[in-house]
């Protein structure tokens, strides 16, 4: 499905990157930014959201971009496109759930108090790891 998404949005020949977001990127409403096609932006977000069922490494970054679906700007689109560039380089990654093994779940969490640039709300993030 990942390759289909890349083809759908004409990103199948893009360069790959090592990370889905630029380090320490803080997205905001970007009220003075150039607006982009809302329908296309939402379609890109929706396709990536569907993919997160097998690619949980994308959840945080896709959800960060999804917050700006009402009025997406060029800045938001560039952040979202970086997720596609990351996807291109990690196309064969994913979760495989074997039937007959004991899988252990390890979880980590972090919080950013008053870190949202628009609302000063706190945000939290978590990562879960499956292992035998």
- Percent helix range: 25-40%
**Radius of gyration, CA atoms, in whole angstroms:** 16 Å
Q: How many structural domains?
A: 1
Structure annotation, total helices: 4
The overall pLDDT average reads 85
The neighbouring-strand order within the major sheet is 1-2
Q: SSE order, as H and E?
A: HHHHEE
**SS strand fraction:** 5-15%
The main pleated sheet reads as: 2 strands, antiparallel
Contiguous uncertain segments of 5+ residues: none
Shape: globular
DSSP, total strands: 2
- Which structural class do the helices and strands define? alpha+beta
What distance separates the N and C termini?
27 Å
Explain this structure.
The chain has 132 residues and is an alpha+beta fold. The protein has one domain (2-96). It is built from four helices and two strands, in the order ααααββ. The protein has helices at 2-8, 38-51, 59-66, 74-89; strands spanning 104-112, 123-131. The chain has a two-stranded antiparallel ribbon. Helix 2 (38-51) packs antiparallel against helix 3. It starts with a helix and ends with a strand. The model has no long low-confidence stretch (mean pLDDT 85).
């Amino acid at each position: 499905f990942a390759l289909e998404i890349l083809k759908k949005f004409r990103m199948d020949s893009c360069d790959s990157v090592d990370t889905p977001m630029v380090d320490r990127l803080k997205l905001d409403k970007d009220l003075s930014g150039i607006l982009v096609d809302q329908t296309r932006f939402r379609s890109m977000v929706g396709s990536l959201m569907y993919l997160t069922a097998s690619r949980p490494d994308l959840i945080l970054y896709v959800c960060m971009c999804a917050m700006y679906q009402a009025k997406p700007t060029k800045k938001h689109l560039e952040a979202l496109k970086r997720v596609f560039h990351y996807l291109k380089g990690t196309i064969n990654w994913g979760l495989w759930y074997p039937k007959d093994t004991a899988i252990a779940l390890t979880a980590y969490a972090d919080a950013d108090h008053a870190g949202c640039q628009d609302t000063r709300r706190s945000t939290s993030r978590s990562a879960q790891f499956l292992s035998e």
